[in-house]
Amino acid sequence: MSAQIFPRNANAIFLASLFGLVMLIVGTIAAMVGFYLSPWYTDVGVAKAQPVPFSHKHHVSELKIDCRYCHATVEKAAHAGFPATETCMSCHSQVWTTSPLLEVVRTSYQTGEPVVWNRIYDLPDFVYFNHSIHIAKGIGCSSCHGRIDQQQLAAKAQPLYMGWCLGCHRAPEDHIRPREEVFNMEWDVNSLSLAERQQLVKEYQIPTDGRLTNCFVCHR
Amino acid sequence: MKYSIRQSILARVVRLAWLPLCLVLVACHVDMYDQPKYKPNDVSNFFPDGRAMQPPPANTVPLNSYNPNSPLMTGRVEGQLADQLPPEIKLDAALLAHGQSRYNAFCAPCHGLVGDGQGVIAYRGPMTVPSLHQDRLRTVPIGYFFDVITNGIGRMYSYAARIPPEDRWAIAAYIRALQLSQNTDVALLSEAELERVKAGR
């Protein structure tokens, strides 16, 4: 009998470790994809601390202040318009005038030093998003920002991955609403039938020939 | 023969061994994510006050065909408050609808949706906001409303930074419509209008 170099179960161990190796690779990739989509990486739903604990829930949902009172350029410009300290003070020079929470705002108004807020959404610099065209074509605030009127501290509602943008650029009829409902946070897309929404797409002259998915629509 | 084929396959594999390095390289392109350029509301290390968006110098006027001294921009004709809309603004249903949307967004929090001074901020203040339906405001020239939105008055701040001049005129025109709506002789209404009033629309 010749000498055995490998023990009897070597074949089984070899197969098992092959299987284990494949599972390790698949598992690692799955874990990385999962991490990439998870709030640990995307910050979706994770409220950020701010110098002033501003509550959209209070101002939008309870006081019914229009989005545009503060985000005044959202219909005209690419940028929705971050309110100047003066905007806060146009009410808070009269209400909550001694609140310690607003000390930062009052100091900013007196000294002219801006309040430094923590940015919630930070698109890559090679993406040229424009708020005004989306408003003009009947895409509501809540389509991207979620129910921000229900949030105390603001948090991301979407990771803003490209595939998500393209989803709407491929099928705008799944998200469109009448222009007068754009600022309505409670709008439900199913309150119009698909045919009615397709009619809106036509009426607002949104191209459906695939032009909206060209690279240069967002990357310039 | 067989041996040499195997060797050339091996050589090819070795030659392409650098390819996985690409995976490392593509993962590091943050320079394109954060390019050396300013976007609105960015922080700047260049300007001493730390703002990328610098406030315009005093007395800056927009770079377009506006005449900064025209009635459109000042609400005044030869120094007096204008008593009608400037020629650039055409009074029609679209203007009033636009004015309504601006009024509801910017004015209603204090002045209330019907202009009675019972807006939600006034209510919670608590503070007294004058009604737009008092005799003094019913009789002022329309340029008065433009002037107040532009320059503010009393406790009301200027809204010039948030409401462009054309929109201020639309709001002024809508305020006139509001005033009419709250101070109309019922006998002057047509049958159809009476129906709508009764139905609460």
Question: Can you walk through the features of this model?
Answer:
The complex is a heterodimer of chains A (220) and B (201). With 220 residues, chain A is an all-alpha fold. Chain A folds into 3 domains: 28 residues; 126 residues, no CATH class; 33 residues, no CATH class. Helix content of chain A is 43%, strand content 0%. Chain A contains 11 helices and no strands. In chain A, helix 5 crosses helix 6. The mean pLDDT of chain A is 93. Chain B has 201 residues and is mostly helical. Chain B has a domain of 122 residues: Cytochrome c-like domain (Cytochrome Bc1 Complex, Chain D, domain 2), CATH 1.10.760. Chain B is built from 10 helices and 2 strands, in the order ααααββαααααα. A two-stranded antiparallel ribbon of chain B has the order 1-2. The longest helix of chain B is centred in the middle third of the chain and has 19 residues. Chain B is elongated. In chain B, 21% of the residues are buried. At the A-B interface, helix 4 and helix 5 of A face helix 5 and helix 6 of B.
Topology summary:
The complex is a heterodimer of chains A (about 220) and B (about 200).
Chain A: H1 10-37, H2 39-42, H3 56-62, H4 67-70, H5 85-92, H6 103-111, H7 131-136, H8 141-145, H9 162-170, H10 194-203, H11 215-218
Helix pairs in contact in A: 5-6
Chain B: H1 2-15, H2 20-26, H3 30-33, H4 71-74, E1 76-77, E2 80-81, H5 93-111, H6 120-124, H7 135-139, H8 143-151, H9 165-182, H10 191-199
Antiparallel strand pairs in B: 1-2
